[in-house]
Write the structure tokens for this entry.
Amino acid sequence: MTRVHDRGGWPGAGPVDKSEHELSWWEKRTDAMMVLLQSPDKRVIRVDEMRRAIESMDPAAYEKCKYYERWLTALETLMIEKGILTREEIDRKVKELDGRR
Amino acid sequence: MTPRFKPGDAVRVRAGSPPGHFRTPGYIQGKTGQVARLHGAYKNPETLAYGGDGLPKQCLYLVRFDQAAVWTRYGGAPRDSLLIDIFEHWLEPA
């Protein structure tokens, strides 16, 4: 079975979008969090775990998400899986930050 | 760890989609190429991906494929090749 991330040679996939964009603060923060969690002295997450977490996203959600949104989804998945954060804690924080806007 | 293949050996990539994480792209499965280099032995990403220790280490090879043999209706130069890192347990003698 072809999986959503394994798309080399998909017919009709079209050319690769190589356009660049200015990174926003949340994209940079997502990158920073992932780098810290993977750093050799912490090693909370392995790169292979992150890839697996991205690959296991729902295919429709995967297609809709931007690059760093996939990273963020993987971060949440792994933090919950490892018992570091709970879904409720993440949701509560999101709500709290939403209220600050 | 004794490598099963050496540079120059013809190898075929195993086909299939085992459950779980693997790093052998679908488009190269079942294709035949030639070992270009042995990179060394590395922890297995298929178990690292689930929090495992990745042991025993697996030999990782750089394998060269003719682009024309990989893609039907390949439009590039006939000598174009594709180089991919592939773990030993994904390879069989061809």
Notes: Chain A has one domain: 26-100. Chain A touches chain B at residues 1-3, 6, 8-9, 46, 48-49, 51-52, 55, 82 (CB under 8 Å). Chain A has a mean pLDDT of 92.
